[in-house]
Amino acid sequence: MDILTRRKFLIASGVVGAGALAAGAAAYTLTDLLATGNEQGPGGRTLVLVTLYGGNDGLNTVVPYADPAYHDARPEIAYSAEEVKRLDDSVGLNPAMGGLHGLFGQGRLAIVRGVGYPKPDRSHFRSMDIWQTASPDRPGNTGWIGRWLDGAGGDPRLAVSFESALPPLLAGVHGAGASVPVAGRAMRGGLPDRTLAAFAADSPDESPAQARAAACFADLRSVDQMIAQVRDAAEEPVDGTDPERPAATSTGGARTSLEAQLDLVAQCVEARVATRVFSVSLGGFDSHADEKQLQAVLLGQVDRALSGFAARMSRTEAGREVVVAVYSEFGRRVRANASEGTDHGTASNVFLLGAGVRGGLYGEQPSLTDLDDGDLKFTVDFRDVYATLLDRVLGADPGQVLADWPGRRDDLFDRV
Fold first, then answer.
1. Domain of life here (predicted)?
2. Would 207 be classed as within a structural domain?
C-alpha cells in the first residue's frame, strides 16, 4: 500500500484517534531514540513484534508431514517427510527455515499452533485489524500496544515501528508510538520535499483528520535524516532497500528487508534506548498461486533475519532480554486451489524466541479433517499469547489492556 493510500486508510478506518495519531506521528529519528537510556533498568525486557502481512500459510510453515490428510488436501504443494526440518515425529519446519530449526533444537524457539479467534474474518484488513487491536468481537479504535503505552506513560519512544506508516497496533487512546521508516529512496523519488513540507504543515483552521494526516507527513520527512544518522553510527552502511524488489504489497509490509529493520532494532537495543516495543514487518504472503516457491523464498528471508538477529542478541546483556513474536493475520485454507496456491484461511502459528522463552511445541494441532467450512478450527485464542507477553515481557497487567481477558500461557516462559 503506498503512503497516500495508507494515510487515507488510517483516517477512514477510525482505528487511530486524532489526538493519538498526531501525538505518535511526530518526526522521530534514531538520534531521538538514542537520547534516553532504558528507563526500565537492566531487568527490563524488550518485545519485538514481527508481522507477516498477506496471510502466511501455517500448514506449509509448520508442516504436519505425517498426516495423510495434509498430503491428500494439497498434493502438488505438500512437503514430504524427507524435505522438512523435523521437529518431532509428526511435524517439521519448512525446508527454508534451517536457522530457526537450529534454535528449536537448542530450546530457544517456541511454536504455538492453532492460534486464532472466534468467528474468523478472511478479509486481510479486517483480520489484521482484529490482531492489532485485540478486539475480535467488534471493530476497535486502539491497538493493544497503544493501550499498553497509555498505561506506561505515553512516551512515543516506548513503542516504535520501523515501517512506512504508523500501524494501528501502536495507537492508544491518549497517544501513540513513533513511526521511524527505514526506506527513504521511494519517498525522495516521488514528491518533491517542498510538496511534502506543505503536506506536513499544520493550519489553525484545518479539521482533526487533516491535522493528523499532516502529522503523518511530518514523520515521513524524517526518513532521509534518519538513514544518514544510521549510516554514520553503524560500522557498515545500512541499506535495506533493494532497487529490484517491489514495494510493499496492498496487504501491507515494510518496503525494506526484514534484516535491515531488525538491524536497526539491534542497534537500538545495544544502545539501551528507552523503547520497550519494536514493530517490524514483511509482506507478500498472499499466495493464491504458485505458493511453494514463493513462500519458501519469503520464509528463507524470515529465517535468515530472525536467526541472525537471535545470534546477535545473544552476545549482549541487553540483547538477552529481547523477546520476538512472529504472527500473520490468518493462515490459509487446508485444501490447495487449482493454481497450486492456497486461499484465505483461519488459524495458524505464532513463533516466540528470546529471553526466557521455553522452547517447544505448544497448543493443540488443529485437525485437518474436522473443519469449519474447509478451514482449521483454532485451538488457542491469540489473546492468551498477548496476555502472556504483556505479563512476562512488558510487566503489565493484561486485564487493563485486554478488557479483563482471563487467558494466559505461563508455560511459554521460564520463571525469572
1. Bacteria
2. no
